[in-house]
Amino acid sequence: MSIERRALGSEGLEVSAQGLGCMGMSEFYGATDEAESIATIHRALDLGLTFFDTADVYGIGANERLVGKAIAGRRNEVELATKFGNERKPDGTWKGVNGKPKYVLAACDASLQRLGVEVIDLYYQHRVDKKVPIEETVGAMASLVEAGKVRYLGLSEAGPDTIRRAHAVHPITALQTEYSLWTRDAEAEILPTVRELGIGFVAYSPLGRGFLTGRYRSAAALAEGDRRHVMPRFQEANLDRNLRLADEVRSFADEKGGTPAQLALAWLHSRGDDVVPIPGTKRRRFLEENIGALEVELTDDELRRLDEAFPPGAAAGDRYPDMSTVNR
Fold first, then answer.
1. Cβ contacts of residue 214 below 8 Å, gap of 6+?
2. Which of 149, 185, 240, 287 has the most Cβ atoms closer than 10 angstroms to its Cβ?
3. Whether residue 216 lies in the annotated active site
4. Which position among 58, 123, 124, 179 bears the catalytic label?
């Protein structure tokens, strides 16, 4: 199949209509397998999926090194996105959010070195630092564009006012936020804001961290150390209600002759050409399944039924154990 290309934002960046989130290849979601992860990235490129998402915090730099290794020799085929701002110590413990200009410049140089590239296509502030005016952080990010180290700028989990203030300093190409059938918070204010400003929208965790695929029916299905053990929506108190939502996805998918993952991603593709989901996987078979979503077409009646079955706020539990740094 031929994967459609889409303009992400209005500044000139073009990406594959679906991307690949690489975080789980290095940390958070159970055992990792570098060889299979690299093979997954190579398979993505062979199929025409070219938009890869990583961050300096994933695996404390290990994920950037993995992605860099995988794309070596094929850099010109890739739209490469990474992020800064979530600081951790070498032992993995959390330091906090850092948006200080000096740190922005140092973080970018470190990412470039780990990735083994000369320029980052899309550089996000991973979380907004409430102690540093966004104008100062984006000013530093803009200097990276001027220096030729970064092509386009992005924000992750920023609120409408922050997006506007940032965009006034330097054009923001993309806003990345969680968005899926069970997380529709962005529809109220975030999507209208970025559309008004000509900013693209990148949807992370489009499969509800795998929950919407139906593969996780209990905490016992998660590997030891899997980050989802502490996610409220995977907790026992919320599980019954959220399992009903996953079962609804399975029922719709069975009707369509596809998989739950394909249905959930097809719904996101229906949200507009400015929405680019980046489902994460570390295995080729799930990558290929997810790409199949691009061939699923939903009728107006099916979209209406999905909206009724998954209204905003349908899921039980917060997205994160601590929501204090989200949507600032």
1. 246, 247, 249, 250, 260
2. 287
3. no
4. 58
